[in-house]
Structure to design on (316 residues):
């Protein structure tokens, strides 16, 4: 009979058996699943197609299941591949989060502040650097649809953005409200009015982002309207910035925030939109993050960013 040594694995809680799974192979599989083609996936991974084929074969051996079938048009997931794909993505996210958490623990004097398009965090970041000269304080742009993921994946530690976005597992502090406006070309029938209502733009098409969160799109298009009518569909666009060109060309109107749109486009003007709730600019952090630097930045954000003039007047 073997003695059990205190503190040694013999008296530890039951742990899952070790798993021999190469995460690089898992990543390669997710890239193929995205492209549905070995050749295009190999190009995206910057490796040869035979090398990628060998990687997937090794992964299938490790799992004991066939994940992909090749077809004349590319490749398709087997039933096992369909089941494994969401688990593979979750596994890669968990690994990235574990690495980020370990780095954060090893570098407690580091904070990365995110900001979305049209919002300025400089005053709070400068105060942070002034008050914490030994800290590594970075600022990084974050796509509006990526706020929650950027935080939970530890790519950033705080983000200044506009609602709406998913806020579960996040701590959200409202910094200030912004009135929403309607942006039109200078020769539009509504240009020069003191304010407009949703009835005034009831039949005006609004651009639609091709890839966007449904809640975000509905909020900025006010879709449906209070009377239940859907917002008129305008052209599809790939980037928020494309709205300006469509509006200037007379193909649509847009709902934005801020009044000084002419600072960016002299051929456009904005009109206050009456009868709708203002947009909210917020600071979001991870709910379980008790870092002293995050707490400090929250304080400086409330002090320096809680005024509309802290933001870009052409914010979108």
């Amino acid at each position: 009979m073997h003695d059990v040594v205190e503190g040694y694995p013999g008296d530890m809680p039951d742990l899952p058996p070790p798993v021999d799974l190469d995460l690089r192979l898992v990543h390669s599989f997710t890239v193929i699943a995205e492209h549905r083609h070995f050749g295009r996936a190999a190009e995206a991974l910057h490796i040869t197609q035979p090398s990628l084929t060998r990687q997937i074969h090794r992964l299938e051996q490790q799992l004991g299941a066939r994940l992909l079938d090749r077809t004349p048009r590319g490749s398709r997931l087997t039933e096992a591949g369909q089941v494994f794909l969401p688990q593979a993505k979750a596994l890669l996210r968990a690994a990235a989060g574990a690495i980020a958490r370990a780095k954060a623990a090893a570098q407690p004097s580091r904070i990365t502040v995110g900001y979305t398009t049209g919002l300025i965090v400089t005053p709070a970041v400068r105060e942070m650097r002034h008050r914490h000269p030994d800290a590594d304080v970075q600022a990084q742009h974050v796509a509006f649809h990526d706020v929650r993921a950027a935080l939970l994946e530890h790519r950033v530690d705080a983000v200044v953005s506009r609602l709406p976005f998913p806020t579960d597992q996040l701590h959200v502090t409202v910094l200030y409200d912004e009135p929403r406006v309607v942006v039109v070309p200078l020769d539009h029938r509504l240009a020069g009015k003191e304010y407009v209502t949703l009835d005034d733009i009831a039949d005006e098409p609004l651009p639609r982002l091709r890839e966007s969160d449904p809640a975000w799109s509905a909020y900025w298009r006010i879709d449906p309207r209070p009377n239940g009518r859907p917002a008129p569909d305008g052209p599809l666009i790939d980037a928020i910035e494309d709205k300006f060109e469509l509006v200037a060309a007379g193909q649509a109107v847009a709902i934005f925030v801020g009044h000084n749109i002419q600072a960016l486009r002299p051929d456009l003007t904005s009109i206050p939109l009456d009868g709708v709730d203002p947009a909210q600019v917020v600071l979001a952090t991870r709910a379980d993050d008790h870092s002293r630097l995050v707490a400090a930045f929250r304080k400086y954000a409330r002090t320096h960013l809680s005024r509309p003039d802290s933001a870009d007047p052409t914010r979108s």
